[in-house]
């Protein structure tokens, strides 16, 4: 308890350090979403500086989240020169506003090179914190980042806008149910984070891991995850020591790291927090990823957050557990014991189902990047088809609503295991479905499609916005009703009939579901270039604008950024493959072939009667695969050159997907084939066996 939050300028610290009136003023902004009073900035800044300096801080930074997907920071000392020496100062102006170079971050055309000015703005709703690295302590102030002309250049501003939009529409709906006291609804999130660990010495010998974050070559080891012995297995001492330090760092930062365990693939693990306000959860997940990577290095390991660092075993995702809470203490997705009678719950449930079906393409877009293309639909993650899992109880209620009015709910009860010494277990009303992209799990929805490297901001911006739109349409339809109960029943039935097609409780990994989804008219968007187009569809642009989440320029800017990132990612991977082929694998194959040839000559020189057929067969196989490797390398070089010469960004991305990526797969096939026949002492790269099983 003494450790938790000790490096956070949280409300208990503010209550101690700030004058009572200032604390009360700031707390109203944090708790109620009221405008920040600028007159308190100097007082808060002085208290924040005093607290940070007491803890050893010498510098502060505006900690923000540009469109790179990682965090950014520029450090400034508290130092201010005077005639007699220097003072430690930190003004309200420095707290409230910073000025990083906006043209050096991805802007999608919102900022030209010569248009450099951008602003960071203090987000007082996410507490400042101290980051300790070795003997350096830095005060980190969460901030938003925007251009000189006011457009959002980061992942925080649109997230906060989407949260306000959701709150406004949810409050409208709650007031229809007679709740006149509620003033605010907040979306909440808990983000489960998967990751791999590899020994640092192996990482430094793998150019692909260093440059691309994933292995571009690598034959599968004789053992992978098929024995299912790693999942929830006993955690190795070295990893457990690492996890202990990760937890301690996160607890100091106020991150509620709760759960840790071995994941499915060897070398893969998971950490999960308790869920909280979406804005803070997003900041905390960025901290989680930073801490995972930083602490790993202290243990001579490297943390890999790529969605698919190793072919042949499961990749890593990030499950986004999303719900809504009102400021009077309600979880709006809590069904209660008799959900068929809970009209308010059913309204928010229907709004969510309607949103997911109407904007399925946008949800798919929110999880699109080059890394996640390796996971989605690969029997380790949900397919690229969006569907909703409700479980038997709620699916039955939806069926009843479609036919008329829901009159019953299946009960949960208890389960007798059949051993007298074991307790009778309370049984949930429905099973879980780990194959579903968007699954109801008791009092929240679990969006399972996110990749492990993602900022959770993007998916939650979209979830908040589309559900805000559904709630708006419900409120618009019912606010002037003269017979609320009857009109609500009719509206819920209309929504259920129209959007029931999105509900699927079966195996999302099966081929039968792909065929069934097509019959239902559900979109199936397997690749990132196609998925990203959903962001700039007419419907998407309109819904973002309607709720002031993005204007049209901001939407198109993000589309350009994500298309460009996709192309750059594949370009880096292709160049790295070519480099590894030409400077590592092909020379090794030639050297080994020469050794085998010399062996044949040496043996036959002793006696022509000696059998060298094995060596000759190996040499022939080496020569064939070496020739194929060389040809595939040249083919990739050509495809890459042709793709890079395409001026249109959208067409270029399509060419990378269709041509460059295909040639990369062909080159990998020949490289991995060579690994299987070249003697271990010659092979220049750490193998899957070493990387996955040596920790």
TrEMBL record:
Family: Belongs to the glutamine synthetase family.
Ranges for domain GS beta-grasp: 58-150
Highest rank taxon of the organism: Bacteria
Coiled-coil stretches noted in the UniProt entry, renumbered to this chain: 612-653
PANTHER family: GLUTAMINE SYNTHETASE, TYPE-3 GLUTAMINE SYNTHETASE
PROSITE patterns for this protein: GLNA_ATP, GS_BETA_GRASP, GS_CATALYTIC
Alphabetical UniProt keywords: Coiled coil
Species this protein is from: Geomonas anaerohicana
Residues of the GS catalytic domain: 155-585
Protein name in the entry: Glutamine synthetase III
